[in-house]
Amino acid sequence: MAGSKTSAGKTSAERVAAGRVATRPSPSQLRAVHELFIAGEVDATYLNSTEVRPVVAQSWQRSLAVGVDPDLDGARAAVTAIERLRETHPLAPALPVIRRLLVDDAIDSGVVVAVSAADGTLLWVEGDPTACRKAEAMNFVPGADWSERSAGTNAPGTALALDRELQIHGSEHFSRVVQPWSCTAAPVHDPATGALLGAIDLTGGTQVATSQTLALVRATAVAVENHLALLRVAGIGAEPAARKPHLVVLGGDRPRWVTTDGYGHLQATHLTGRHADILVLLSRHPEGLSADHLAVLLDDKDLDVVTVRAEMSRLRKVIGAENLGSRPYRLLTTITSDVAEVFEALDAGDVDAALNRYAGPLLTQSVSPAIARLRTQLSTTLRDAVLAESKQGRTDLLRRWLDLPEGRDDRDGWQALRDSAGLTPVARAQARGHLAGLDYELG
Known about the structure:
- Residues 117-227 form the GAF domain.
- Residues 1-24 are annotated as: Disordered.
- It comes from Mycolicibacterium iranicum (Mycobacterium iranicum).
- Helices cover 47% and strands 12% of the residues.
- It is of the alpha+beta class.
- The model is unreliable at 1-23 and 237-242 (pLDDT under 50).
């Protein structure tokens, strides 16, 4: 239908058309077209003639046809027994893979990671705690129905409707409350039957609507399907969907204890340096440690048993009494940690994965002699593994090591890079220059 005339003698649709550009429309132009369409001022024919992407225009038409209200505060609740659905869902065994590839890096990045069932019901919503709380305002929570027929155009819902990966940018969403967000999603299929199992989604700001993000989500979906296939072939039991507590102690950020709440949202609790020391030591000594032994490991000079007992009492309040035993002191729950992940990758000979998980030295502010020893062991092992790989032509690993704070003054590493075969003249000159700077500083 035609749009109504304005005082300037042009319809609203004509004014929007006049402001169109040959590339993707700006957010304001897209919102203008969206408003005209949902107000009934333009029809599908006009919509399809604009610069709105066809996949979005067609989704808007489907959303309008099934009666989705663009002014809804968020998606409708779908199920109440979400825990039971999670336990029995085919994607539950692959949740550790999704967490490793997406969630662990989303904790402090303003990004939400969601896993949905094939009908659009959100099963798990994890990631940056602040972003998760904001997403709750539009009912982007476990148990909500984010299918296209319920919530309108959105990445997980439309990906399921079309059975294809896609991204939805800001104002491309049909519902107004979702338009401040962007999202990228990919469907996941049963590796044996090809049946649609659900979708994996990244939701956040404009940073999640890039080609790199699409490639990451696509690769995660493939990894999940491969994981499910391997579990089926091996006939082994699946890893439980409930996330184990995770200890983050590498790099310059404050150490933290990461768990999930009843809705599957990640919760990060910052730790004192002493509590982080204790948890690292207990994770390396599953058999447990006496108060005397722990005191020596923490500080071989000034720490007494009374102080250790007081610290353990405070730590029990921080992480929960159910996680910490005594006589001897030990962890009652199996936990994961970034330091353990680096060691495990090195044990498996996967230097690439070890570098991915290595955010920096272990607890650099710690005065514990045992932590200092472990810090040196980890850093030295990783460095030597990188140098060994560089001799086999893996200069990419060597470059990544040299980009770390520990690698900037690694003269042997820079010399190895300078002498590497296949280096461009500019890269070789940069390596020589860095070595000259190190030699000058060292006299």
